[in-house]
Specification:
heterodimer; A: alpha+beta; four-stranded antiparallel beta sheet; 18 helices; 50% helix; globular; B: seven-stranded antiparallel beta sheet; 10 helices
Chain lengths: 531, 314
């Protein structure tokens, strides 16, 4: 079998395998091929880490677990034990997981993972009975300052809800000098949330601190957020505290209510709990079955869905890279767009995904342009290449700082996304462009630079397409087909679109076969005549 | 304006993908690339194979050797310093004469021995090499160009590119630098390519930036009178590069010295496709004709003779 036939054989086998496995998974295992009739399933993972205390060998970690919450159904829960004994307790509606072990040393990692989905029908009351006479724990000196704040907020509001909102606003913007005084003191022991709770108590309004996480796809290693629940007219109402989060309060997964701590570790130091959140799409049917049986399905164990949540959200991005690679191969081999570096466009596209295209593109162009200007000066003073590139890296860091600071001062939030640009991509782009500049001239910088950008933008659109994102993550076997297509494109020996332009003049000379442009015309005409 | 791909296929125009897949990947073994990517290695191999190259005066490979090398330069009038792994003509210093202690460049600028020292030092630390690799500086005799070629080139040096496939000369052109190309004989930077009849060395067409021209844009010299002397020697010299480099598909770059005749400057493992525009003919049919040969293990002379007979315009 010739090498070409071999490649085609392998490529078609891969494509058939990829598509076949996808169809099997879809029809036999109930993964829907399109997004319709699906339900969002959130996987939330809590990672408890602590260092074993050297003075005592035994350790115990108590983690409060979320309970049923209105609008949210818990589908499943998993724990890792790592040699720990695990018990779960439930007391006064508070569930806790207790891991304990006799002999521990070094860094410890414990996982708790849960799957949940939205269900508007789900109703449950998990808030405690209100305290009719709440007390604040301000001491005498601070009570005066606190009174001033709450009175001002009271004057500027009409009911309890607007009072709370106004109070949050005052604390956030530090409108009053008293706020700064109280906050500095309070933050040593508590938080802004606790301060508001105490202020409201002065007016006889009961409130409680609620800890939990916002359900946002792809967040990793989050610390728990604190929000406030206020008892207003016989009902507990949640207040979104931090002003920079525009997140819907409905997406808040309540993990723990009241002042008790989320995590208690005995026999360990530097304890911490962090959350990773990811959303998957599953068919409604599958969710329903799962919900009823409340057991983990085994068939997802050997898929990406079986990985820890933190790794899953990284894979969501990684699984898009083959699509970008396919786009690059397609545009280079079939269209003939010149790019600098084979897969640099994919890397640039990945950076654009972080920043979004509309802000990423201008920022990228600015940095590369200024970097090139400075580079051209550096090459005038005859620096060695290594030193030149290193100097560019330093300058790029400076530029990123300048852009971040100016846009922050001007109030343009988008400018801050410059920090999402991986340093290495920017410095490398500038280095490659400068090498092209030196070896082939500014015209080639323009050609290859814009070529790279066009390919990067094409990759960006492919990699952000929600259908393709959905398919790539839920049906990773489709990438076998991607590989097959890339192999076939690698065997393509036909013309590129750009070559049809390049050789247009030559093909015309065949049409009028007299070759009018022939230099030594007289000779050639007689030659032709003798033919 | 868009060409019809079927017309191009019928004419045998070779595309970039076909060149890469069917010829370079198939006939050029990667392990032979270092020989052509390093001009010093090429030169040594050429001398061993008895192929004429510009005379090598010396090599400076370490910074500490520069001092003793400079002492030798004091006695020289004409010479060229080039980086062994330079690309695109970067870092080539040409000295055409002396004026007291100073050295003269072709443009008439005077430089001192100190300037030469700095140039060599930069070369060794990789200022002119691909990717900034450490390099060595080669010092060669200056090629005395045939004065007949003076007007065909602006500042730079016209060279002759011959495509060799499995040792057979396939197509040739002369590359003439222009003001646009900044004195460099690189077609995609604006140099003029003059297609040469592979059997006679006479000009066929001239092309600049993929369009046909009749005269040199800077000197106004018409290209139709161009007839390359020593054509037979040129073909044999370039065909012999096959045995020297073991590359099945290569481009040999040749200059004509007034006294020494044709000399190989360098060998390229990935020669470009613009030569087809300069010749107004596709490479593919010629390459396939050679692929179809049953006895391709011929001597250099036999291969050259075969090519001349095969593609004679008469």
């Amino acid at each position: 079998m010739s090498s070409r036939a071999q490649v085609y054989f392998i490529a078609f086998a891969l494509i058939l395998m990829g598509i076949g496995m996808t169809l099997y998974k879809s029809y036999e295992m109930g993964f829907p091929l399109v997004k319709g009739e699906t339900q969002e399933v959130w996987t939330v993972e809590a990672l408890v880490t602590f260092k074993a205390d050297t003075s005592q060998p035994e350790a115990q970690a108590k983690l409060t677990l979320p309970s049923k919450q209105s609008g949210i159904v818990i589908l499943d829960e998993q724990y890792t034990t790592n040699g720990y004994g695990l018990t779960t307790t439930e007391e006064n509606n508070i569930r806790q997981a207790v891991w304990s072990k006799r002999d521990v040393s070094g860094q410890q990692r414990l996982y708790y993972k849960m799957q949940l989905t939205y269900d508007p029908q789900q109703q449950s009351e998990l808030m405690p009975a209100p305290n009719p006479a709440p007390v604040s724990d301000f001491d005498k000196d601070r009570t005066v300052a606190a009174q001033a704040i709450i009175e001002m907020a009271f004057q500027q509001s009409s009911d309890t809800e607007s009072l709370v909102n106004r109070l949050i606003q005052i604390i956030e913007t530090k409108d009053l000098p008293e706020v700064g005084y109280l906050l500095n003191d309070e933050l040593k022991t508590g938080s802004k949330t606790k301060l508001i709770k105490n202020l409201l108590a002065l007016k006889g309004i009961d409130s409680t601190i609620v800890r939990g996480v916002y359900l946002e796809d792809g967040h990793r290693r989050l610390l728990p957020s604190e929000i406030l629940s206020v008892y207003i007219e016989n009902e507990w109402k949640l207040f979104n505290f931090s002003s920079d989060r525009e997140t819907n309060i409905k997406n808040f997964l309540i993990w723990q209510i009241g002042g008790k701590s989320l995590l208690d570790v005995v026999g360990g130091v530097d304890s911490e709990v962090r959350f990773s959140i990811i959303s998957n799409i599953m068919s409604s049917r599958r969710v329903a079955v799962w919900n009823e049986l409340h057991t983990e399905s085994d068939d997802s164990d050997f898929t990406i869905l079986g990985l820890p949540t933190e790794q899953q959200s990284i894979f969501k991005l990684i699984l898009l890279i083959p699509l970008g690679a396919l786009v690059v191969v397609f545009l280079r081999v079939l269209i003939g767009i010149k790019t600098s570096g084979t897969f640099m466009p994919v890397l640039i596209a990945l950076a654009f995904i972080e920043t979004t295209l509309t802000t990423g593109l201008p920022v990228f162009l600015t940095i590369v342009f200024v970097g090139l200007l400075i580079r051209s000066y550096l090459s005038n003073i005859n620096l060695l290449l290594v030193a030149r590139v290193a100097a560019i890296v330093v300058i790029v860091v400076g530029l990123m700082g300048v852009i971040s600071i100016t846009s922050h001062k001007l109030g343009i939030q988008q400018g801050l996304t410059v920090t999402f640009f991986p340093m290495i991509i920017l410095a490398w782009t500038i280095e490659r462009m400068s090498i092209i500049w030196e070896e082939e001239g500014p015209k080639d910088v323009l050609v290859q630079g814009s070529g790279s950008l066009i390919v990067a933008i094409a990759c960006y659109f492919v990699m952000t397409s929600s259908t393709l994102k959905y398919l790539a993550f839920n049906f990773p076997e489709l990438h076998l087909a991607t590989l097959g297509f890339i192999l076939i494109l690698g065997q393509y020996n036909g013309y590129r679109l750009s070559e049809l332009f390049r050789f247009a003049q030559v093909s015309k000379s065949e049409q009028d076969w007299h070759m009018p442009a022939r230099l030594n015309a007289s000779e050639s005409v007689s030659d032709k005549g003798g033919n | 304006m868009l060409a019809n791909p079927f017309t191009l296929r019928r004419m045998g125009i070779l595309g970039m993908n076909q060149r890469n897949v069917d010829f370079i990947a198939r006939y050029n073994d990667r392990r032979f690339y270092p020989l052509v990517d390093d001009k010093l290695k090429t030169k040594k191999a050429a001398l061993k194979a008895g192929i004429s190259v510009p005379h090598l005066i010396g090599v400076v490979s370490h910074q500490f050797e520069i001092k003793s090398a400079l002492a030798k330069f004091q006695k020289l009038d004409k010479f060229v310093i080039k980086p062994a792994q330079g690309s695109g003509g970067k870092g080539i210093l040409v000295i055409v004469g002396r004026e007291g202690d100073h050295f003269l460049k072709p443009s008439g600028d005077k430089i001192s021995l100190m300037d030469i020292q700095r140039h060599i030092s930069n070369t060794l630390s990789g200022l002119y090499s691909l990717g900034g690799r450490n390099d060595v500086a080669m010092v060669e005799d200056l090629v005395n160009f045939d004065p007949r070629f003076n007007d065909y080139s602006y500042q730079g040096v016209p060279d002759i590119r011959v495509i060799i496939f499995k040792g057979f000369p396939v197509m040739a052109m002369m590359r003439c630098s222009t003001k646009d190309s900044d004195g460099k004989a690189n077609l995609h930077q604006g140099a003029v390519g003059v297609g040469l009849d592979i059997s006679t060395g006479k000009s066929l067409f001239a092309v600049q930036n993929d369009t046909l021209v009749e005269r040199h844009p800077d000197t106004q010299k018409p290209f139709n009178e161009l007839h390359i002397p020593h054509w037979d020697v040129i073909l044999k010299l370039s065909a012999a590069c096959y045995e020297m480099t073991h590359l099945g598909y290569l481009g040999a770059d040749i200059v004509l010295d007034n006294e020494l005749g044709p000399l190989i400057l360098e060998v390229n493992a990935r020669p470009g496709l613009a030569i087809q525009i300069a010749n107004q003919i596709g490479l593919a049919h010629r390459l396939h004709a050679i692929e179809a040969l049953e006895h391709s293990e011929l001597s250099v002379d036999e291969r050259v003779e075969w090519s001349i007979n095969q593609w004679s315009q008469k």
